Amino acid sequence: MEQTRSTPQTESTGGIQGNVRPRRISVAPMMDWTDRRCRTFHRSLSRHTWLYTEMVTTGALLHGDVPRHLDFDAAEHPVALQLGGSEPADLAQAARLGEQWGYKEINLNCGCPSERVQRGAFGACLMAEPQLVADCVKAMRDAVDVPVTVKHRIGIDKVEHYDFVRDFVGTVAEAGCETFIVHARNAILKGLSPKENREIPPLRYEVAYSLKKEFPNLEILINGGITSYDEIDTHLQYVDGVMLGRQAYHDPYILAEIDNCYYGADTPAPLRQDAESAMQSYIGDLVEQGGYMGSVTRHMLGLHRGIHGGRGWRRVLSDARRMNAAKTRADVDALFEEARSHLRPDLREAA
């Protein structure tokens, strides 16, 4: 997807507009996808897009391997930690860990509809208990100095009236939450899979717009089904920020002009081959430390989406057997060279 916008002509500070909200554009937390390898790749395409971790449960942090869940590279910043949980004390302790590990924001998941999450009494089902969410937010805010935010749906099951989500936001805002990320669909708690919950409930963007109108002092971000710069531009007329989801994963080059178009950056947008070159070097370091090449390339497979030869490029870099066999930088370089041989000449070398 090739998208072009002119760079905003306003005074900038350090190459970035001084008046731009840091969360103006973000990439959603996505289970099994937005891990540290994915975030490193996204950062090669956009320096300023706000990134989120996968959801990490309080139990995983309080009773599990903390470094495995929280370790990340400072180059990923700005990056936020999304937590799943419903016990205020546990969330406060987990948030404190997140702050100690260097995350810039702690986000509470009130939108995931999966049965596993429901069994833990958190995620989207928390929308039915706004006072509990407020208590959780207060406990986390008392524990950390970084912002505490909430990501939520606009309703659950057949509850579609605006008053429901308005009262939820109002109650949680009273506890000090100033930023709400609104996935503009209902969550159907029974009968739909998480995938179906991202596709079947209708999008109602106007609900998020109404929340911003009713709570002008809150930061309202919108999420759900957003696929183009034209759509981003439309939403930014009504809300403070836009969160991209699966579009950013399947067609990651959409991120390449975000810095110029929405943050006022005065540096050139990265080319596909430059992002690929940066990741090739990163993967070379990783495998020489004993890491698995495929843990990174699986997130990169959309880089040449829609480009002639992209299918052959993907085929080489998605071969699990060959990814597993790559043990040296030379192995990595050889695989990338073979992958690029399928592309047109101008995409085969970094600019």
Automatic annotation (TrEMBL):
The keyword tRNA processing applies. FMN binds at P29, M30, M31, Q82, K151, H183, N223, G224, G225, G245, R246. The keyword Oxidoreductase applies. It catalyses: 5,6-dihydrouridine(20) in tRNA + NADP(+) = uridine(20) in tRNA + NADPH + H(+); 5,6-dihydrouridine(20) in tRNA + NAD(+) = uridine(20) in tRNA + NADH + H(+); 5,6-dihydrouridine(20a) in tRNA + NADP(+) = uridine(20a) in tRNA + NADPH + H(+); 5,6-dihydrouridine(20a) in tRNA + NAD(+) = uridine(20a) in tRNA + NADH + H(+). Transmembrane segments: none annotated. Residues 27-333 form the DUS-like FMN-binding domain. Its EC number is 1.3.1.91. This is tRNA-dihydrouridine(20/20a) synthase. It comes from Cupriavidus agavae.
